[in-house]
Amino acid sequence: MLIDSHAHLDSERYADDREAMLGRAWAAGVGTVLSIGIGEGPAEMHQALDLCREFNGRPNLPRLFASAGIYPHCTPEADDAALAKLDALLAEPEVIACGEIGLDYYHEGAPRDVQKKGLIRQLEIAAARKRPILIHCRPKDEHTDAWDDLFVILEEHWTGTGLGGIMHCFGGGWEQARRSLEIGFLVSFAGNITYPKAQPLRDVAVRMPLDRILVETDAPWLAPAPNRGERNEPAWVAQTANCLAELMGKDPAEIATETARNFHRLFPAEQVMGN
Ligand SMILES: [Zn+2]
Q: One digit per residue, pLDDT tens: the chain, 275 residues?
Protein backbone atom coordinates (compact mmCIF):
# COMPACT_ATOMS: atom_id res chain seq x y z
CA MET A 1 0.00 0.00 0.00
CA LEU A 2 1.02 3.62 -0.51
CA ILE A 3 2.45 5.81 2.23
CA ASP A 4 1.74 9.54 2.25
CA SER A 5 4.89 10.72 3.99
CA HIS A 6 3.68 14.27 4.64
CA ALA A 7 0.16 15.60 5.21
CA HIS A 8 -1.21 18.32 7.45
CA LEU A 9 -4.20 16.34 8.67
CA ASP A 10 -4.78 18.82 11.50
CA SER A 11 -5.66 21.57 9.03
CA GLU A 12 -8.98 23.18 9.83
CA ARG A 13 -9.88 22.63 6.19
CA TYR A 14 -10.66 19.02 7.21
CA ALA A 15 -12.76 20.04 10.20
CA ASP A 16 -16.03 18.91 8.59
CA ASP A 17 -14.99 15.65 6.92
CA ARG A 18 -11.70 14.40 8.42
CA GLU A 19 -12.81 10.79 8.95
CA ALA A 20 -14.41 10.56 5.49
CA MET A 21 -11.24 12.06 3.97
CA LEU A 22 -9.12 9.40 5.70
CA GLY A 23 -11.56 6.75 4.49
CA ARG A 24 -11.06 7.91 0.91
CA ALA A 25 -7.29 7.57 1.40
CA TRP A 26 -7.70 3.98 2.59
CA ALA A 27 -9.98 3.21 -0.36
CA ALA A 28 -7.34 4.66 -2.72
CA GLY A 29 -4.70 2.27 -1.34
CA VAL A 30 -3.03 4.55 1.20
CA GLY A 31 -2.11 2.42 4.20
CA THR A 32 -0.11 4.94 6.25
CA VAL A 33 0.00 8.71 6.63
CA LEU A 34 2.60 10.75 8.48
CA SER A 35 0.64 13.62 9.99
CA ILE A 36 2.73 16.76 10.34
CA GLY A 37 2.67 18.44 13.73
CA ILE A 38 3.49 22.09 13.20
CA GLY A 39 0.00 23.59 13.36
CA GLU A 40 -0.05 27.35 13.03
CA GLY A 41 2.76 27.51 15.57
CA PRO A 42 4.14 25.73 18.66
CA ALA A 43 0.83 26.08 20.52
CA GLU A 44 -0.65 23.59 18.01
CA MET A 45 2.35 21.25 17.71
CA HIS A 46 0.48 18.47 19.53
CA GLN A 47 -2.46 18.30 17.13
CA ALA A 48 -0.98 15.64 14.86
CA LEU A 49 -0.42 13.34 17.83
CA ASP A 50 -4.00 13.96 18.96
CA LEU A 51 -5.21 12.76 15.54
CA CYS A 52 -3.19 9.53 15.86
CA ARG A 53 -4.90 8.88 19.17
CA GLU A 54 -8.31 9.74 17.81
CA PHE A 55 -8.26 7.65 14.64
CA ASN A 56 -5.80 4.76 15.04
CA GLY A 57 -7.62 1.51 15.67
CA ARG A 58 -10.70 2.45 13.68
CA PRO A 59 -11.38 0.10 10.76
CA ASN A 60 -10.70 0.97 7.12
CA LEU A 61 -8.58 4.02 7.78
CA PRO A 62 -4.84 4.45 7.19
CA ARG A 63 -2.46 3.97 10.11
CA LEU A 64 -1.40 7.42 11.32
CA PHE A 65 1.94 8.54 12.68
CA ALA A 66 2.82 12.05 13.77
CA SER A 67 5.68 14.49 13.72
CA ALA A 68 6.28 17.59 15.78
CA GLY A 69 8.36 20.62 14.98
CA ILE A 70 8.58 24.38 14.70
CA TYR A 71 8.24 25.64 11.12
CA PRO A 72 10.88 28.13 9.89
CA HIS A 73 8.41 31.06 9.99
CA CYS A 74 7.56 30.24 13.59
CA THR A 75 11.12 30.09 14.92
CA PRO A 76 10.71 33.47 16.70
CA GLU A 77 8.36 31.47 18.96
CA ALA A 78 10.96 28.74 19.61
CA ASP A 79 11.49 29.73 23.23
CA ASP A 80 12.40 27.35 26.07
CA ALA A 81 8.76 26.43 26.69
CA ALA A 82 8.12 25.60 23.02
CA LEU A 83 11.29 23.54 22.82
CA ALA A 84 10.37 21.68 26.01
CA LYS A 85 6.99 20.89 24.45
CA LEU A 86 8.73 19.61 21.33
CA ASP A 87 11.01 17.43 23.43
CA ALA A 88 8.04 15.95 25.31
CA LEU A 89 6.15 15.24 22.07
CA LEU A 90 9.16 13.49 20.50
CA ALA A 91 9.20 11.15 23.49
CA GLU A 92 5.77 9.79 22.46
CA PRO A 93 5.90 6.55 20.46
CA GLU A 94 3.55 7.81 17.72
CA VAL A 95 5.71 10.89 17.12
CA ILE A 96 8.32 9.33 14.88
CA ALA A 97 9.92 12.41 13.32
CA CYS A 98 10.88 16.01 14.07
CA GLY A 99 9.54 18.42 11.47
CA GLU A 100 8.89 20.08 9.35
CA ILE A 101 11.88 22.22 10.23
CA GLY A 102 14.41 24.00 8.05
CA LEU A 103 15.04 27.27 6.26
CA ASP A 104 12.67 29.37 4.16
CA TYR A 105 14.31 32.33 2.42
CA TYR A 106 11.50 32.62 -0.11
CA HIS A 107 8.87 34.04 2.21
CA GLU A 108 11.42 34.96 4.86
CA GLY A 109 8.75 34.85 7.56
CA ALA A 110 11.51 35.12 10.18
CA PRO A 111 15.03 36.61 10.02
CA ARG A 112 17.56 34.15 8.66
CA ASP A 113 19.67 34.06 11.82
CA VAL A 114 16.55 33.29 13.89
CA GLN A 115 15.61 30.47 11.50
CA LYS A 116 19.10 28.99 11.71
CA LYS A 117 19.21 29.14 15.49
CA GLY A 118 15.73 27.59 15.75
CA LEU A 119 16.72 24.83 13.36
CA ILE A 120 19.91 24.01 15.27
CA ARG A 121 18.14 23.84 18.62
CA GLN A 122 15.56 21.47 17.17
CA LEU A 123 18.28 19.30 15.65
CA GLU A 124 19.79 18.93 19.11
CA ILE A 125 16.45 17.86 20.57
CA ALA A 126 15.71 15.44 17.72
CA ALA A 127 19.18 13.91 18.08
CA ALA A 128 18.70 13.34 21.81
CA ARG A 129 15.30 11.73 21.12
CA LYS A 130 16.74 9.73 18.18
CA ARG A 131 14.10 10.97 15.76
CA PRO A 132 14.79 11.50 12.03
CA ILE A 133 14.01 14.98 10.71
CA LEU A 134 11.67 16.34 8.03
CA ILE A 135 13.29 19.24 6.20
CA HIS A 136 11.51 22.18 4.58
CA CYS A 137 13.94 24.13 2.41
CA ARG A 138 12.93 26.94 0.11
CA PRO A 139 15.45 29.37 -1.38
CA LYS A 140 14.76 32.66 -3.10
CA ASP A 141 13.91 32.17 -6.77
CA GLU A 142 16.99 31.51 -8.89
CA HIS A 143 19.14 31.13 -5.76
CA THR A 144 20.47 28.20 -3.77
CA ASP A 145 21.17 30.25 -0.63
CA ALA A 146 18.82 28.35 1.70
CA TRP A 147 20.13 25.00 0.48
CA ASP A 148 23.75 26.07 0.91
CA ASP A 149 23.11 27.23 4.48
CA LEU A 150 21.06 24.10 5.20
CA PHE A 151 23.79 21.69 4.16
CA VAL A 152 26.38 23.56 6.25
CA ILE A 153 24.12 23.26 9.31
CA LEU A 154 23.25 19.61 8.70
CA GLU A 155 26.87 18.64 8.20
CA GLU A 156 27.85 20.34 11.45
CA HIS A 157 24.87 19.36 13.61
CA TRP A 158 23.11 16.35 12.11
CA THR A 159 24.84 13.95 9.74
CA GLY A 160 27.04 12.63 12.53
CA THR A 161 23.96 11.33 14.35
CA GLY A 162 23.31 8.84 11.55
CA LEU A 163 19.57 9.33 12.08
CA GLY A 164 18.85 10.66 8.61
CA GLY A 165 15.75 12.39 7.41
CA ILE A 166 13.54 13.44 4.54
CA MET A 167 13.83 16.37 2.14
CA HIS A 168 10.11 17.06 2.09
CA CYS A 169 8.38 18.39 -1.04
CA PHE A 170 11.69 18.44 -2.83
CA GLY A 171 12.08 21.39 -5.18
CA GLY A 172 15.82 21.69 -5.67
CA GLY A 173 17.99 20.86 -8.64
CA TRP A 174 20.17 17.84 -9.22
CA GLU A 175 23.03 19.31 -7.17
CA GLN A 176 20.77 19.58 -4.11
CA ALA A 177 19.35 16.11 -4.72
CA ARG A 178 22.85 14.67 -5.03
CA ARG A 179 23.97 16.32 -1.79
CA SER A 180 20.83 15.06 -0.03
CA LEU A 181 21.63 11.52 -1.13
CA GLU A 182 25.24 11.95 -0.09
CA ILE A 183 24.23 12.76 3.50
CA GLY A 184 21.88 9.78 3.60
CA PHE A 185 18.53 11.54 3.22
CA LEU A 186 15.41 10.36 1.45
CA VAL A 187 13.90 12.74 -1.10
CA SER A 188 10.13 13.11 -1.10
CA PHE A 189 8.15 14.24 -4.13
CA ALA A 190 4.79 16.00 -3.90
CA GLY A 191 1.96 16.85 -6.31
CA ASN A 192 3.84 19.79 -7.81
CA ILE A 193 5.83 17.25 -9.83
CA THR A 194 2.71 16.83 -11.99
CA TYR A 195 2.50 20.54 -12.91
CA PRO A 196 3.25 21.56 -16.52
CA LYS A 197 6.12 23.91 -15.56
CA ALA A 198 7.83 21.31 -13.35
CA GLN A 199 9.93 19.72 -16.08
CA PRO A 200 13.21 20.58 -14.27
CA LEU A 201 11.90 18.75 -11.19
CA ARG A 202 10.85 15.74 -13.30
CA ASP A 203 14.34 15.73 -14.81
CA VAL A 204 15.74 15.40 -11.28
CA ALA A 205 13.24 12.74 -10.23
CA VAL A 206 14.03 10.49 -13.15
CA ARG A 207 17.67 10.32 -12.01
CA MET A 208 16.84 9.36 -8.43
CA PRO A 209 17.67 5.89 -7.12
CA LEU A 210 14.46 3.99 -6.43
CA ASP A 211 15.61 3.12 -2.92
CA ARG A 212 15.84 6.79 -1.87
CA ILE A 213 12.48 8.30 -2.83
CA LEU A 214 9.17 8.88 -1.09
CA VAL A 215 5.83 10.32 -2.15
CA GLU A 216 3.69 12.78 -0.23
CA THR A 217 0.76 15.12 -0.66
CA ASP A 218 1.65 18.05 1.62
CA ALA A 219 -2.13 18.17 1.89
CA PRO A 220 -4.15 20.38 2.08
CA TRP A 221 -1.78 22.18 -0.33
CA LEU A 222 -0.29 21.27 -3.71
CA ALA A 223 -3.06 19.09 -5.14
CA PRO A 224 -1.65 17.18 -8.11
CA ALA A 225 -3.01 17.53 -11.63
CA PRO A 226 -5.87 17.27 -12.55
CA ASN A 227 -7.09 18.57 -9.18
CA ARG A 228 -4.61 21.43 -8.96
CA GLY A 229 -5.99 24.35 -6.96
CA GLU A 230 -8.44 22.22 -4.99
CA ARG A 231 -8.04 21.14 -1.38
CA ASN A 232 -5.55 18.28 -1.51
CA GLU A 233 -5.95 15.06 0.51
CA PRO A 234 -3.90 11.88 1.08
CA ALA A 235 -5.95 9.79 -1.39
CA TRP A 236 -4.36 11.83 -4.16
CA VAL A 237 -0.82 10.73 -3.33
CA ALA A 238 -1.60 8.00 -5.86
CA GLN A 239 -1.47 10.58 -8.65
CA THR A 240 2.04 11.61 -7.65
CA ALA A 241 3.13 7.96 -7.44
CA ASN A 242 1.65 7.35 -10.89
CA CYS A 243 3.53 10.33 -12.29
CA LEU A 244 6.82 9.03 -10.85
CA ALA A 245 6.08 5.54 -12.18
CA GLU A 246 5.55 6.88 -15.66
CA LEU A 247 8.73 8.98 -15.50
CA MET A 248 10.82 6.08 -14.28
CA GLY A 249 9.24 3.48 -16.53
CA LYS A 250 8.00 1.44 -13.56
CA ASP A 251 4.73 -0.10 -12.55
CA PRO A 252 2.80 2.09 -10.05
CA ALA A 253 2.67 -0.90 -7.68
CA GLU A 254 6.47 -1.02 -7.68
CA ILE A 255 6.66 2.68 -6.75
CA ALA A 256 4.23 1.99 -3.88
CA THR A 257 6.27 -0.98 -2.67
CA GLU A 258 9.63 0.76 -2.93
CA THR A 259 8.53 4.02 -1.31
CA ALA A 260 6.88 2.12 1.55
CA ARG A 261 10.06 0.10 2.03
CA ASN A 262 12.13 3.30 2.08
CA PHE A 263 9.82 4.82 4.69
CA HIS A 264 10.13 1.79 6.94
CA ARG A 265 13.90 1.72 6.55
CA LEU A 266 14.03 5.27 7.92
CA PHE A 267 11.47 4.52 10.62
CA PRO A 268 12.23 0.94 11.68
CA ALA A 269 9.36 -1.31 12.71
CA GLU A 270 10.16 -1.43 16.40
CA GLN A 271 9.94 2.34 16.46
CA VAL A 272 6.86 2.76 14.30
CA MET A 273 5.10 0.11 16.36
CA GLY A 274 5.86 2.19 19.44
CA ASN A 275 7.85 -0.41 21.34
ZN1 LIG B 1 4.25 20.61 4.96
A: 999 999 999 999 999 999 999 999 999 999 999 999 999 999 999 999 999 999 999 999 999 999 999 999 999 999 999 999 999 999 999 999 999 999 999 998 999 999 999 999 999 999 999 999 999 999 998 899 999 999 999 999 999 999 999 999 999 999 999 999 999 999 999 999 999 999 999 999 999 999 999 999 999 999 999 999 999 999 999 999 999 999 999 999 999 999 999 999 999 865 565 43
Report CA(211)–ligand 1 centroid distance (Å): 22
Handedness of CA 26, 253, 180, 137 (dihedral sign): negative
Q: Kindly give the distance from the C-alpha atom of residue 107 to the centroid of ligand 1, in angstroms, as a whole number.
A: 14
Give CA–CA dist 45/153, Å, rounded: 23
- Region at 115 (left for phi over 0; alpha for psi -120 to 50; beta for the rest): alpha
CA of 190 to the centre of ligand 1 (A): 10
What's the 111 CA to ligand 1 centre distance in angstroms?
A: 20
